Amino acid sequence: MPIQVTDPSDERLADYFTLTDVALRRRLDTERGLYLAESDKVIRRALAAGHRPRSYLMGHRWVRDLADLVADAEDAGIPVYVGDDDVITTMTGFHLHRGAIASMHRPEPLDVGELLKAVSDRQRTTRSRIAILDSLVDHTNVGACFRSAAAMGVDAVLITPRCADPFYRRAIRVSMGTVFQVPWTRIDPWPGGIDRLSAAGYVVAGMTLGEGAISLDELVAEDHHRLALVFGSEGHGLAPQIEKVLDRRVTIPMMGGVDSLNVAASSAVAFYATR
Fold first, then answer.
1. Global pTM?
2. Exposed, middle or buried: residue 171 (CB in 10 Å: 0-12, 13-18, 19+)?
3. d(Cα 135, Cα 137) in Å, to the nearest integer?
4. How many angstroms separate the CA atoms of 177 and 172, rounded?
5. Residue 119 contacts by C-beta under 8 Å, 6 or more apart in sequence?
6. Is the Cβ–Cβ distance between 158 and 128 less than 8 Å?
7. pLDDT digits (tens, 9 = 90+) for 174-223
8. Is the peptide bond before 183 cis (omega within 30 degrees of 0)?
9. CB 212 within 8 A of CB 252
10. Which among 191, 48, 198 is positioned nearest to 116, based on CA atoms?
């Protein structure tokens, strides 16, 4: 049976406390290897990816709506906590309008070589596309890039050491859980890790506004069988030391006096064009 909670400071639910405190979330992520999945759809995508729940927290009506998840949790000995909306809001720091949230164990991160091998093993052709998110700091942009990557059939995503965490709650929510569908890992060192991509046969192309870049149409016309698309940070884009080691520097031609697109929008355009 679901466990009723009435005290928003109940220590059994410490995973969910003060989720608006970024420092606390980082501490929990680092020390316990956890992330938080919010909403029915996101939780189900996490489970479908083989991730293991540590506990569930939900409003009363969702016990019925998520009866199959509750039953599976009880069979596995995973606690399901249920409380009134005001108790949950006080506990988490936000209104849980999507009904349910789960504390999930983070999967063990893959090595870049392991990820590339997994991509190669499951490909039916020699073609492959991966994305590299370099130093994106906005979790919304990270989530949006993952959603576009999933929608456009990108095989994997690599994130650089300074990139925001794809398993942060907001990134997961914006991605609609597609951060669980698209394989990803951190590439470190960066940009030194580009050598590993080149050794695996990838042409590494960075999106830039710099002079001398070829157009996205020209990149598509080159018809590379293995392509890695690099997207730079929201403020300054790709750093000069990264542009120097790219195989291609690529730009999306602009009209209407617009000089650039948000990184989430530019990634969607590039993923579609190179599909």
1. 0.89
2. buried
3. 6
4. 5
5. 128, 130, 155, 156, 183
6. no
7. 999 999 999 999 999 999 999 999 999 999 999 998 888 999 999 999 99
8. no
9. no
10. 198
